Every structure is written in C-alpha cells, then in structure tokens.
Amino acid sequence: MSQYKFLITSSPHIHSGESVQKIMFSVAGALLLPTLAGVYFFGTRALILVITATLAAVATEAIFQKLRGKPVTVWDGSAIVTGMLLALNVTPALPVWMVVVGSVVAIGLGKMIYGGLGMNPFNPALIGRVFLTVTFPVQMTTWINPVDGTTGATPLALMKMQGVPTDYYKLFIGNVGGCLGETSALAVLVGGLYLIYKGYVDWRIPVSYIGTVAVLTFILGKDPIFHILAGGLLLGAFFMATDMVTTPVTKLGRIIFGIGAGIFVVLIRLYGGYPEGVSFSILLMNAFTPIINRLTVPRIYGEVKTR
Amino acid sequence: MLKTFKGGIHPPYNKELTKHKPVEKAKLPQRVVIPMSQHVGAPCEPVVKVGDHVKVGQKIGEAKAFVSAPIHSSVSGKVVAIEPRPHASGAHVMSVVIESDGTDEVYEGVKPPKPLEELTPDEIKNLIREAGIVGMGGAGFPTQVKLSPPADKKIDTIIVNGAECEPYLTADHRLMVERPEDVVLGLRAIMKATGVNRAYIGIEDNKPDAIEAMKEAVKSFSDIEVVPLATKYPQGGEKQLINAVTGREVPSGGLPMDVGVIVDNAGTCAAIANVLKTGMPLIERITTVTGAGVKEPKNLLARIGTPVGELIEQCGGFAGEPGKVIMGGPMMGISQSSLEVPVMKGTSGVLVLQKSEVKTLEPMPCIKCARCVDACPIHLLPTYLGKFAEKGMWDEAEKYHALDCIECGCCAYVCPANIPLTQLIRLAKNRILASKKK
To answer: For B391-432, how does the pLDDT look when each residue is reduced to its tens digit (9 = 90+)?
Structure first.
C-alpha cells in the first residue's frame, strides 16, 4: 500500500467545477439570442458586425498579451463577450471598420491597460461604444429600419424629438430601429432570464435598475412600459450592468448600483441632450462601484460593535 | 421552512456510499499508535513505560492541565515504544505504541458507575473528564471543560450536533439510526451536569431515518426537541447550528457559552452514554471509511490508534489509484502523506479520493463574481481577504475580520477562478495571530 504517493494540500479538497470559462461562454451563449434577433431584423450586415467585432476583440487581447510577454488567455471567453456586446450596442448601419476600432478601444483602453481580466473599473464594451459615439457621432446615430434597411429613427428619438410613441408589440418583438442587439426585448429577456437561472446574473441589478426607471418615469408622468421596452435598457440591465468585474460584490451594493443607474437613465432620457442614457448610466455607476463596495461591507456573523 | 443559516453551499454529498451500511466492528488492530494529543489543549503525559503491560481502558496518558483530556489504551498488550509518530495534523506527536496481545482484556478499574439518577452534576463531569471524552466532531475540545463554564455564563440551551454536514461522512448518521437511545442518554447526562432543561438535537433533513429514530428516542422527554435542519454546508458548524436552532449569534471572538449555549456532537453524547453504561472510557469511535478510492466503503467502529491503512484494507483496499487520503471530510479534512497515521478521538472519517478526482487547478484572475461573498456563512468578503493575503496586507485582513473565518472552505469551493481563498485566509489568520503573540 505504501507504494503510492498522496497529494498533500490544505482543505477544501473538492471544487464546484465552476469556472470563468463556463461563465463567459454562458454569457456569450445567451448573447446569441439578441444576436439572432438582430440578424433576423437587420440581415447579414448585423451578423458581419458581430463576428468582426468579436474577432477584433479577441485579436486585440491576444496582441496585447503577446506584446507584454504574458500568457495569451483569450480562451477564457471574456474578450468574446466584450466583442459581442460592443457589436450589439451599435447601429446595424455602422461601417465594419468602425466596429473594429471600437473593439480595439474596448479591449485595449477598456481592459488591457488596467491589467486585463478582472482589473478594469469600467465595462470594456461600453468604453468602446462611448468612444465610437463621440468619435463618429454621425455614423453611430444613423439608424435603419428593420427588414427594408431604410434610414429611420429609434423609438426613443421619435418620442424625444417628435413625441411619437411606438407600438408595444413592435418594441417587444424588436421590429424597430435601434442598436443591433437591443431592439428585441423578447430575445434579451430570454437570454437574461437564462443567465439568472444559471446563477451567472444576480437578479438584484436588473430588477432594481429596471424598477427604478419604471417608478421614476411613472412619477414624472411618462410611460414606464415604453421606457422599459425602448432603447437599450433591457440589454444594459441584463448584460452590462451585471458585468461581474465592474459591479459591486455585495448584495446591497448591487441594489444601490441598479437604483443609481436607473436614476441616471431617466435623467439623461428625459432631461439630457441624448435620447438614450443606458451606456452612460452604467459607466457612471461603474465609477461608484469601489465606494459602494466599501460602504456596504456586510455585517459579519456575531459582529461586535466597536467604537 | 426548515431552519438554517445565511450563506453556505450545496456540494455533492456522496453519502449514499455508506449511509445505509450498518456500523461494523473493525478488526482488532495488532498494534495501536495512540497520540498524547488528540484534543484542544495541553498534551497528555504518558503514565506508562516501554515494556509495561496495559489493558483495555487503562489510562496511559494523564491530563495535567484543566483544558485537556486523559487518554486510555484501546487494546490490551505491551507498550513497545513511546516516541513521536506521524499524526493526522501532519506533525510528529509523542505517541504510545502498544502491541496487542489479542486477548482484549478489560482493565479492572473499568466498571459501570451509579445510575444517572443517582449521580451529582460534579460526579457526571468527573466521569466525563476521566473517560477522556472530547468533542468527536473533529475539533476535539475537552467536553468536561465545555460543561464547566465560568459562573457568569448562564447556560440555558444544549444543542446536540447531528447535522453531519461534511460530504461523505455518515458516522453520526449511523449512530443516530442504530443507537439513538445512547445519544439521548448522553444528552440527559449533559443536561443534568449543567442543570439545563432545554435541549435540541439538530439533524439535516437528508437523514430522515435519523430524524425519525431520534424523535422516537426523545418521545418521553418533553425538554428535548429534534430539529430538522436544511441540508446545507456548513450547517454543522457550531456557529451556524446555534444560529439555525436558536436564532442567536455567537459574538465575534466569543464562544457558544457567551450566548448561553453548549453544543455537543452526537458521537460525544454516545461516548458519554457508553461511560454511564459500562464505565469504559473513550477508546473507540465510528469512522466512515469512504470515497471512490476505497473498494468497499464502510462505517467502522475502530479502536483509537488503529492505523488508517488497516481500516482501508478492511474496506477491500484501494479502488484504482489513490490520489489523496483525507482524515475527515473533503471540505475541512486534512490530507495525509502516510497510511500509518492513527484513528483519533476526532476522526469522523477517512476519505480516499482517486487520482483522477484530484485536480490541481490553475488560479485565474478574480472576476469579482462574488460567489464567495454569497457563500461565506460568516458574511465575510473572502475575495478581499484573499487579495490582502496575497499582498501581505495583514492589518487590512484583520480589519476585514479574517480572524472570524471558520475555514469551512465554501469560498474556495465556489470560486470559478480557482483562487485558493480559504487557504489564503488561513495564512492571513496565522500571520495575524503570530504578530499578536509578539
């Protein structure tokens, strides 16, 4: 019996089998739903954008890691998620080379310069998106109508500029103008609920975020259902405000994060210069994440008050 | 809603391997190695010499300090060595090695005491102390010390820990199914010794047969209640158990007695019952020998001092290539390098994992998913503590309550980035405590 050598490690000796890859690929899998909706409504140009953005994000990460002499870890799947999210957050009419620029900025400036996975304070896809918005304002706001591809306006812009409402059913299904992956509330919801079911998304953020927007718009005399279904709120609430790296680690902190982001969205949509404010609201709250964490450290079991 | 605590995890329990297997008496070992330290507190001093003949139940190690427990021979035979031997903790510990003569002759001093009704509280405590009884759930705190709190600590509740939340282990489960009346007898002795008239027996609901058996056994005692608990690790952690059963929280840095509670393991109660019935000190215990690495997993009643290798052989030996041998369960047990280490008073199980089950996982960057935060039963922020430990920021770690960590392993178990959080926090605790000693 003594011919065996036993491994000696400190407990625990078993592991859940959960992994970063599983989480990232599950998110990427869930993102396939809004991707498919985008392809359905906007055609192959949407598919080309998503694939290009993803490949560019992965390539950027690999190049950065090569240059720094670090191991290439693109197979953790995080760059795939960032690339997909960026593409889902741009107009389907965007020239392909611009989405490549966005991916490079998202991964390069949004993630790698901070030290890579887990170190970035801001959601990388949103960094890429905001960069594109300020750099290519015209191209980033050239919206097209589903199916026929003619230029049009987003429901939020129609409401803001002309006070024209959009049919709930169209919004729910996604048969409206807007970002590639945000138009179909249905696809986003199914994907998001899948992630909640898998335990990869904490329900607290989407619930507090969307809930805050609903309550505030209602109080301010607007149509809460329209504000939930239109624009990028659902996509942001389920897929970007829930990015683990850039959101609070405490449960209370996540609720505060959602409420804060909700307030920013309503402020921007109703009183700001832009028709949409989801990206900015999440980025702003990302900035608050460290302090939210610090202020919401849970009371430990048996904590004795010390003064 | 079943009673439970906040946090925790649901690992695969793997108790099917042994939960329906009645306890078997292990073969009498030919040679036992009995460490002089099997408990929290001062080690015992050997009171026998090499060459002495000893009998079953004879005291071989004397406890001089208050926080300690004497140690008895588990076989009859000749003392062949008194020297440091491998110990489950990984260290070498002074041990008495006894060569069995195979007669299993009982020491003359071992006789049943007066019935429980006639014993005074002090007599009960003395019996418990002299029988070398310690917490048998693993920690090994001397039971009599627990039963003698300082005068300013008013105890009003006794909790019997029958949760057995560690995966794989079924020693307490089988005990409660097979000898529920012994658990109750031991509990009644504890209640009498402490003058407490309220007791609970907490059992996870994955052991319905044990809950049934215990309920039946306490039928005639209105002051004892069986409390089914949610099956969740670490439900059997002392602090989690107290919280689940009474709603109270042991203060940080404090003990259960600070909230008026004494917790004793079901096995400890049965050991007390054994003393009351036969006078035999603690010389054997049920230990679950299990895991995919064992051919025929069993619950064995093993003499203290039996080398674990012998128990594995009695379970048909290794199945496949063994990768890890663990004393205790997979969450908090200690991995062993040698099969010579002996069964001790606190050895609730011997777990053998196959080589293919044992993986060394490469840590990745933390993605702040906060699974560890959700799992921590003490509500710590393990991700922060792990980072502080990696950077040697011991003061920060202390500020974030590293010392309150119970090392249950939940954080490391759930971490998708394979960060050894429990191990890092353990390191931080050691460093903080070491700096306090200076």
So the answer is: 999 999 999 999 999 999 999 999 999 999 999 999 999 999
**What are B9-46's pLDDT values in tens digits?**
999 999 999 999 999 999 999 999 999 999 888 899 99
pLDDT given at position A305: 65
Domain for residue B198, yes or no?
A: yes
* Residue A8 within any structural domain of the chain: no
Residue B297: predicted pLDDT: 96
Query: Which pLDDT tens digit goes with each residue over B175-209?
Result: 999 999 999 999 999 999 999 999 999 999 999 99
- pLDDT value of residue A307: 44
Domain span at residue B177?
A: 120-278
- Chain A residue numbers with beta carbons less than 8 Å from the beta carbon of B420 are 10
Q: Do both B250 and B310 map to the same domain? A: no
Partners of residue A253 in chain B, C-beta under 8 Å: none
Residue B364 within a domain: no
* Residues B168 and B257 occupy one common structural domain: yes
Are residues B236 and B160 located together in one domain of the fold? yes
Q: Of the candidates B337, B413, B426, which has its C-beta nearest A16's C-beta?
A: B413
Q: What's the number of domains chain B is made of?
A: 3
Residue A7 lies in a domain: no
Q: Sheet of B59-62: strands edge to edge? A: B45-46, B59-62, B71-72
Chain A residues whose beta carbon lies within 8 Å of the beta carbon of residue B401: 300, 303
- Best CA proximity match to A234, nearest among A17, A30, A2: A30
pLDDT of residue B2: 87
Any bridge partners for residue B326, and if so which? B335, B351
- Whether residue B418 lies inside any domain: the answer is yes
Helix, coil or strand: residue B407: coil
Q: Which residue in the block uniquely carries the two structure tokens 């071992």?
A: B110
ipTM of the complex, rounded to two decimals = 0.91
Backbone phi, psi, residue A179, to 5°? -65, 155
Residue A307 lies in a domain: no
Q: Is A306 on the interface with B (CB under 8 A)?
A: no
Whether residue A110 contacts residue A122, with contact meaning beta carbons closer than 8 Å, is answered with yes
